[in-house]
Amino acid sequence: MPLLEIKNLQIEFGSRTRAARAVDGVSLSLEAGKTLCLVGESGSGKSVTALSIAKLVPSPPARYVGGEILLEGRDVLKMSARELRDIRGGLVSYVFQEPGASLNPVFRIGAQIKESLTYHRPAAANDAEVIRLLKLVGIPAPESRLRNYPHEMSGGMQQRVMIAMALASQPKLLVADEPTTALDVTIQAQIIELLGDLRKQLGMAVLLITHNLGIVGDLADDVAVMYAGQIVEHGPVREVLQRPLHPYTQALIQSVPVLEAEVDRLTAIPGTVPLPGDFPSGCRFHPRCPKAQPGCSSQAPELTSVQSRRRVRCPFWDSPVITKTASVRT
């Protein structure tokens, strides 16, 4: 049994008469001890999907209109408020982007980590355990650092504190939602490496949310590509990166800068992700797709299995024919 299994999840915002479906039929699974990366541009529905795992998307304004979210076989969408409090930060922990906005500026970091320990592991709510957690995430001189306020630490150190807080409850699933946002590239690499080391050391599963395919290769086992509320491609990370099947995945990979390449202009995907409630008919990517055919604007493709562990939402995934040129809009 997978640790996490999402089946046909559907989440809407707005009134029932004017509903905007932000997540539309998403199905994913994650085994214990494995890492799944959920990739896509801003507005694709990644964070809403991730927050829904612990039912953190408030309802209202959101409505969970269909599907199941199974954690160790239990449906989160049917849990009581007390059951949800137990799994939040317990079975599932989150590391959010912008750590400076997540940490309380008026409390020392040691007190904030101890608060998490008090709720989930009260017997371990002491300075010795806080110091152990700070050491675990690579913070130097943790004995003195636990008395720091968040503003006395760099962005990278603040993110390590957030990871320490997430690990305090010894979760089985760690959800990292854009954990490298606003960090420089050197610190980004350190945080990604830290997450990989912690996963191996603690045996937990990791769901990494990102818009950057360039950081997933060394961390993930599988990758799911999301666009306009739907999964458009899913498979083992090496296979997806080496041979992407969906035109959107191909475009994301082409947009990653290559240091050795000499180019006049970086590759970009024309247009923007459509807003929920304003999705185009047929394939949702067809207005931006260089492989679009006449039928793409009227026929909505299904997510189908095309190889042993590959799924793709495009009937022309194996076609090299380019019917229109995708240009960069300036």
Key terms:
330 residues, alpha/beta, 10 helices, globular, disordered C terminus
If you had to describe this structure to a student in words, what would you say it looks like?
This protein is an alpha/beta fold and 330 residues long. 27% of the residues lie in helices and 22% in strands. It has 10 helices and 12 strands. It has helices at 46-52, 81-87, 99-102, 109-120, 127-136, 142-145, 155-167, 185-202, 237-242, 247-254; strands at residues 4-15, 18-30, 35-39, 63-71, 74-75, 92-95, 173-177, 205-210, 222-227, 230-236, 304-305, 311-312. An 8-stranded mixed beta sheet has the order 6-7-8-3-9-10-12-11, sandwiched between helices. Strands 2-1-4-5 form a 4-stranded antiparallel beta sheet. Helix 5 (127-136) packs across helix 7 (155-167). The radius of gyration is 21 Å and the shape is globular. The termini are far apart. Residues 321-330 have low confidence and may be disordered.
